[in-house]
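Lab notebook, bench 4. The sequencing result for the construct came back, and we need a structural model before the next group meeting so we can plan mutations. Quick request posted to the team channel:

Model the 3D structure of this chain.
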Amino acid sequence: MSRTVSSWILSSARNSIVLQGKGRLYSICVPNRNKIKWKLLSKTHLYPAGSCILNDPFPLKKVFRHTSTEEEHFSFQLSPSQINDILRAGELSHKTLDLDGKNANSVLRFESNQLASNSPIEDRRSAATCLQTSGMMFGVFDGHAGSACAQAVSERLLHYIAVSLMSRQTLEEIELAVECMKPVQPILQWHKHPNDIEYREITSQYFENLRVYWQHLLDLDTELGFSLEEAMISAFKRLDSDISLEVQAPQENELMRNIALQVAFSGATACVAHVDRIHLHVANTGDCRAILGVQEEDGTWSTLPLTRDHNAFDEFEIRRLKREHPRSEEKTLFVNDRLLGILMPSRAFGDVQLKWSKELQHSVLENSCDVEALNIYQYIPPNYHTPPYLTAEPEVTYHKLRSKDKFLVIASDGLWEMLSNEQVVKLVAGHLTELNVQKPQLAFEKPVNLGYMHSLLLQRKNRGTTLLDQNIATHLIRHAIGSNEYGEVDPEKLAAMLTLPEDLARMYRDDITVTVVYFNSESIENYYGNN
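Done. Here's the predicted structure in token form:
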């Protein structure tokens, strides 16, 4: 193996002094002894992180992951098959069925995958077909301070959206069935990976709170119901409110109490797409991202962003928060590009530390048993005067699909930290073309030079391994962590990134979750033709 990649990793490891305190993790990086720089290992929190009680759904074999940074114990040796085993462990794909041949689904198929950096992984994903209404939904959820909140949101949010979209008659029929203790027709058909986990112990409580929500919708006494945008906003806000109330309610069952605590005191960003014929709605809270891949008439590709990253780099978010808080707090709302100096995203589920009053936080934690065992601590940041500072209210984007809209990519920020929107579209377009044994015509190809030609030769040499991915999400993850400066996969770098010790992996890459939805262009064209 080349010394270049291994020495790069080992040099960083030797020059990093890791300080691990009570739930906090920092690193002093000393690339130059005359310059000391602080680098935060966790992308989201300075305050102690809550951990989930669940095991990693995609555990890596110990032979692949190491905890020592000593050179004699630090090995990057992975065979191509071992690399593929790691990358493909979370693969999920589903092709939609054309049942009647008349109203073909605008979703042709979707492919998804995950790769962990944190142990256990804090990202989650969801995909489901609506059974009581029309359409399909796809969600990506990026957890922080543990996976508990992302887990709960991934299980519950699509149900809340589906209920919000139901007609009054359907809600009344479901409520009557529950009252009469009769079977309730399923609301969603889930498309899950065999290793996807769920909080089975608390499912009954989740259902009861969902029922309270649809009873509230019935009490609104409106025949028109919500628009799709209103339904998504209502579902996001109601679920976040339920997460907050559940942890405040008396709970005799200790396990359910602990889960409620971990869900509320951890956090998650969320991006959910709803596709119904030519109607695409994307609701986003936080810094997950959704983009469209568009193929123009001349064969070139372009990107169409459907979300904004809600963080300190977004001017709209800065102005929104300034409007919501006194002028005296303008300089302390964002510190070091983090909300109150703590959180990267400015919108998220959970994270009650940034939503509740100091008194409520103290009351809930004081009355809870052994919260330190759950890695939950009360931490009040400086300049915490006018909560809430954080919201789960999403920004909803509507787009009318056209035949040239070929695919939708939803991913956690672990992908976007490594690849630009344009790079992602280029990779998906190239993958489509490779499957069709054609060469893509890309509008943003790099100019040809000797280095790039060498890279193409390297690609041809490695074609047997780099083009084995049938799942496009795997293809994107492989490139995200293993690409060289020319955008081609370097097998040595890929192996190095996959064998980083657990205490170093988070310094170089985040959890990555990707879902790619392919659209049926013929179905979309037929819809316009028939209307």
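Residues 8-72 have pLDDT under 50 and may be disordered.
Will bring this to the meeting.
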